[in-house]
């Protein structure tokens, strides 16, 4: 009974944490909108930030930390000192094109506390985006409290971009040894870490590429399938580290991967694929006219499903892991330091192990569906002329 009661209290605390954060966020937004109409913008920003800092609860701090981990940023922050307000990490290059090329480190923004001046132009980092401002860093808003300041062309090296560069180099280094082994002879056995990679390569070939695309055409698409599989798998694993990686949890990244799959599928398609899409063989003409828009819509929905599936699963997994870790802080008073730490550690450890499986599963699903879509596009069909 005690265990059941503790579990129910724990569940209620987690639900209360989520609801209190969302309700507080909505209330804060409304109060901020009213203060904009009453005072000057620069004074209002200062007062609202100070008031928010005073009223910030433990639940809000946890929610902000989760949102910071999930969002892209111009610097890596490993941890922060609440007493001194100092952040520990490293900054990344900011590359802007605005009346010329402007390059500087994101540390000049001081995490949004300072306005950066370059060649007579002023820039401010506000809520994860860079805006053009005046020397005081004034941000103007519309009636829905969205910034209307002009934004420069931004080609900065953000966390996601740096993570992609790092993963690309890592994949290149890992497969360099495996490629050298294969060049020496097809019967040579890989050595070192290459022995871990070879079973995965064979798995992608034998379980995804060959069954879905066919033995005659699968080799052409193996580089793409291997790249997608290992890129997603490694990025998912890096997302479980405390370094702040959340690349596959970014909708823009998953959208790019899905678009590449869509382009390869359409440009590799044969005439049978297009015939089945626009003029389905073997069915009456009225049905052909009805099926054509449905087939076109289906071709567009396929990459959309790839994009949303990967993004939603990774984002949900990271949110749940951080939510369970947050139990250590939120339930500290109710369960005590030892109790809260034990429960949070047990639940988060179990979920991290599960997330490792999910990391592989999401890479498998994306690659499997990509090979299936490509196979449907390049497959040769035999039609009965009598129909």
Automatic annotation (TrEMBL):
Compartment(s) where it occurs, according to its Swiss-Prot or TrEMBL record: Cell membrane; Membrane
Gene Ontology MF terms: proton-transporting ATP synthase activity, rotational mechanism
Major site of localization recorded for this protein: membrane
Record key words, sorted: ATP synthesis, Cell membrane, CF(0), Hydrogen ion transport, Ion transport, Membrane, Signal, Transmembrane, Transmembrane helix, Transport
Transmembrane domains' residue ranges: 161-179, 224-245, 251-269, 310-331, 343-366
Membrane topology annotation: Multi-pass membrane protein
Keyword Signal: yes
InterPro entries referenced in this protein's UniProt entry, alphabetically: ATP_synth_F0_asu (IPR000568), ATP_synth_F0_asu_bact/mt (IPR045083), F0_ATP_A_sf (IPR035908)
Domain of life: Bacteria
A Pfam family this chain is assigned to: ATP-synt_A
Signal peptide annotation: 1-25
Annotated GO CC locations: plasma membrane; proton-transporting ATP synthase complex
Role played: Key component of the proton channel; it plays a direct role in the translocation of protons across the membrane.
Family from the record: Belongs to the ATPase A chain family.
Protein name: ATP synthase subunit a
Organism of this sequence: Myroides phaeus
Source lineage: Bacteria, Pseudomonadati, Bacteroidota, Flavobacteriia, Flavobacteriales
């Amino acid at each position: 009974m005690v265990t059941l009661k503790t579990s129910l209290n724990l569940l209620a605390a987690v639900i209360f944490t989520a609801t209190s954060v969302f309700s507080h966020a909505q209330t804060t937004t409304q109060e901020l909108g009213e203060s904009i109409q009453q005072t000057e913008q620069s004074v209002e920003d200062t007062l609202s930030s100070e008031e928010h800092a005073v009223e910030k609860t433990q639940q809000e701090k946890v929610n902000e930390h989760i949102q910071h981990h999930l969002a892209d940023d111009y610097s890596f922050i490993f941890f922060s000192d609440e007493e001194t307000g100092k952040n520990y990490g490293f900054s990344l290059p900011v590359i802007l094109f605005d009346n010329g090329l402007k390059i500087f480190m994101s540390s000049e923004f001081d995490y949004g506390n300072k306005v950066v001046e370059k060649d007579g132009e002023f820039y401010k980092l506000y809520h994860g985006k860079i805006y053009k401002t005046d020397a005081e860093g004034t941000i103007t808003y519309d009636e829905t409290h969205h910034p209307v300041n002009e934004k420069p062309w931004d080609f900065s090296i953000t966390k996601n971009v740096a993570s992609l560069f790092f993963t690309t180099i890592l994949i290149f280094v890992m497969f360099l040894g495996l490629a050298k082994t294969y060049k020496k002879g097809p019967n040579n056995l890989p050595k070192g870490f290459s022995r871990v990679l070879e079973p995965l390569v064979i798995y992608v070939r034998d379980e995804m590429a060959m069954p879905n695309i066919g033995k005659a055409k699968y080799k052409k698409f193996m580089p793409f399938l291997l790249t997608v599989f290992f890129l997603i798998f490694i990025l998912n694993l890096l997302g479980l580290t405390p370094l702040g990686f959340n690349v596959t949890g970014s909708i823009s990244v998953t959208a790019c991967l899905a678009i590449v799959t869509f382009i390869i599928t359409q440009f590799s398609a044969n005439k049978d694929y297009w015939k089945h899409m626009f003029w389905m063989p073997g069915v009456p003409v009225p049905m052909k006219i009805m099926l054509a828009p449905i087939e076109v819509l289906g071709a567009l929905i396929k990459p959309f499903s790839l994009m949303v599936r990967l993004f939603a699963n990774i984002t949900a997994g990271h949110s749940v892991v951080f939510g369970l870790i947050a139990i250590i802080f939120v339930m500290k008073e109710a369960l005590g330091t030892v109790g809260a730490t034990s429960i949070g550690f047990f639940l988060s450890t179990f979920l991290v192990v599960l997330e490792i499986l999910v990391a592989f599963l999401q890479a498998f699903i994306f690659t499997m569906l990509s090979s299936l879509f490509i196979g449907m596009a390049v497959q040769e069909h035999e039609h009965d002329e009598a129909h």
